[in-house]
Amino acid sequence: MTDPTTFPLKVHDRRRLDALLDHDILDTPPEKGFDDIVTLARMTCDAPVALVSLVAGDRQWFKARSGFAPCETTLDKSICAHVLGAPDLLVIPDLTQDPRTSSNPLVTGEPYLRFYAGAPLAATGGEHLGSLCVIDLVPRPMGLDDRQAEALRALAGQVMSQLELRRSGFERERILVGQAALIAQQDALIAAQAAVTRAAGDRDAILDALVAGVMETVPQAEGGVIELREGDELVYRSGRGALAAHVGRRLPLDGSLSGHCLTTGKPVLCPDVLTDPRVDRDAIAALGMRSAIYVPIARGSAHIGVLKLQSSQPDAFSGRDLRNATLFAGIIPAGLAEAGEAEARRGMRLGEATLRTVMETLPVGVIIAEAPSGRIVGHNVRTTAILGHEVMPDAVQGDPERWVGFHADGHPVKADEWPVPKVARDGGQQDALEVEYQRGDGTRAWVEFLAAPLLDVDDRRIGAVIVVTDIDGRKRGELQLAAAKDAAEEANRAKSEFLANMSHELRTPLSAVIGYSEMLQEDMEDVGQADLLPDVRKIEANARHLLGLINDVLDLSKIEAERMETYVEAFTVDAVVRDVASTVESLVAAKDNVLALNLGPDLGEARTDVTKLRQCLINLLSNAAKFTEGGRITLEAERGARDGVDCLTFQVSDTGIGMNSEQQARLFERFTQADASTTRKFGGTGLGLSITKAFAAMLGGDIAVASEEGRGTTFTMSVPACIAGTNDEAKPNGSAGFATSDEASRQGVVLVVDDDPATRELLTRFLERDGFEVVAALDGREGLDMARAIRPRVMLLDVTMPQMDGWSVLRALRGDPDLGDTPVIMVTVLDEQNLAFSLGATDYLQKPIDWDELHAVMERFRPRENEGPLLVIDDDADTRVRMSARLTREGWRVATAENGKAGLAAVAAERPGLILLDVMMPEMDGFAFLRTLRAKPEWGSIPVVVLTAKDVDGEDRRRLAGRADCLLRKGQVGIDDLPDLLRPFVSPNR
Questions:
Q1: Model-level pTM?
Q2: In this structure, are residues 856 and 940 in contact, taking their beta carbons and an 8 Å threshold?
């Protein structure tokens, strides 16, 4: 990439940039004069590319281009910028050999530019605005001949002539426009004055005419409003354009630019509200305003309001616009004086009539009480209808203290709980109360009382207004709904328990069938019975198919119950997509289909639930493979912004049977396929796409389909690249899921705890064949007792067991001072990874067990001898020296590194037998080191012991879980303690 610091200083010269802006040429449409020049330059110099390039402060923009597609590039890709410092032609025969351009992205990559010649575009003041250049894709050792060079200079002069001619024409046009604007201003001012006269005191008509007139005179204004002062606020009274919808809006005098204009009495021209410290950003956010004019409206010596014009563009207004607005503001006060009196008279009459009408037609009761006595002085008819009695003071139940009501729990309402005395007499603020009210005839009905203070013009409390609402029907409906909700939740709980139990009962034997099938296949290969392998593979395939159906039903149950969680983690998108493609490769090939990948270059890393994302992609690809035969399936992935959010978009298209619009409409319904014939011909449950859609929604995205019958189908799924998952909210309790002291068992015994005999046998056979010593327990209680007796090196623990389930065993282990450091790997059919890590699990495997995954996990717990060095990673040099000396005396070969980055280099140079890791380090800390180390399969089994002085909290423990094998605290562990603590992981190199 071209280093911008090597550009000539003139690139960012203020005078040069001002000259470029003065020509007003950037981002303008193509013009034939400039296009003809680049065509002529290209032909004259026999070059495939010719450009008129203008170099701004942050980019180069092409006014005309021939043979080059982009209309602009960033400054780091600019070769033309070097012309700015050249006195004459700049000719570079081979761009790859010139240090100024050899690393330019357009040279090292597409389109692989090789030759450049550019003539500077010099303005009349001598400033270089850019260049007219020709470019070739092959080097030209001889550059340009004299005739070509002279022609390029002449054509550059023609470019500047075109620019100057263009600027002169625009200047004349601006003068003519200004004259026309002055005439229009005079006409608008006369029309506005006539409209004020015709209004005859109508305030709205006067204000509307003035706003319309000033906006006609200042055409740059996208919105205009007259703000009139009311107390310490300004109120939008008449608005046009973008501000019409904001009439009635109130602004405080303090902290607003309108208030500043009013209080100082001076007009304000604000070129950019985002850079003006007097502007309240929150107040203008909804207005879409970038620049504005504010003119005070004066009546005598008092300022009564502000005339404001605004635009969504910065620097939209000029001083002339400010003067025009000031002229219009000067004719406002005269009309307002008469309008004020007329409005006052009309308002008084209208207010009285409106109040009477509203009070008597409201569907709610309204009570007026005076302060401070709380005495009721008025009410409407609806009040007595709701309460069933009169409410005036002379009535039997007129005093609220004699009202009878009951709370939801049956307790009577006390006299001081009624909103009327609380607000009117006791000075309380707004108050509400829902009661089962005892009406005048003795019947009961639910009534809501809502009271608010009644204030005069000086904000003094003069009483209270109480709204009385009949809520009997709603309240009784709510009680019925609550009862129905409780019943539905109970039914849902029963269904969830049933599904959980059934899934366990079904998945446990299926896991055994799959495990035995895999082991039988290995045994058959060993004893030469390959003719039986196809049958056993069919058993395994059908068992996995049935297990997939059970998993789909269980996922559907969790989705319906809103119990499905998202477990987010960081991953490389490209790698996951390729892994998915590899997973479905055999399925795609089964019907002679071809799978093509089209992956964007900038997919990068994402942080979301990678398991659900993988499942969505596998479901979509499997669906495409099912309905396509002898065709092509394409998986595309790209990254980009969507509504301001960084998103990943995946598109799966096929050339299969396609769908009509009716079939597409019910595509995502559960247990539904396109039609019955599709189910008969292709099979399936109809759950895959509905689960995919639900998963996409859980990941914050959506999925869409486009299809044509007989032509194929395309699914498009977009999800945010980064989300917050359920595991982000989980806070680990107790001990972390790795060893924390020297009590980790040195015996190398693995304890398997599972109530299913087949699973115990499978795990035992696999682990023993892998070189481990294994003991097994029948349930959680026995497993806990055996753990206390034998102190195993590691435990494999099921969850769903009689007597004592796996969660209880895990809690008991973490609470036991002797066993709290024992590594525990959860092996279960349940999808509860968040809960497992929060309780302190070291790792998590889901049944049916992936034996390769189990092997990789168990490798971390196998004591090793005579392997690579013991690698000490710590940023403190003294600590590294002391540890090396002590461990060397014990027979270890020790290597050291000063931070995580250096540690990774040391691991790459020679694989260590054990890593002793600090957490707090510069450049790359221990957390980042572990994340990178465990991401590489070849390093996944290296034991890591964390030795840190950091006060490790629950979040730190969660980040270390599944990655570190032991946690030791500096200060609690001495140098002399290290040999005994490290021997369970790896023996010295004696």
A1: 0.35
A2: yes
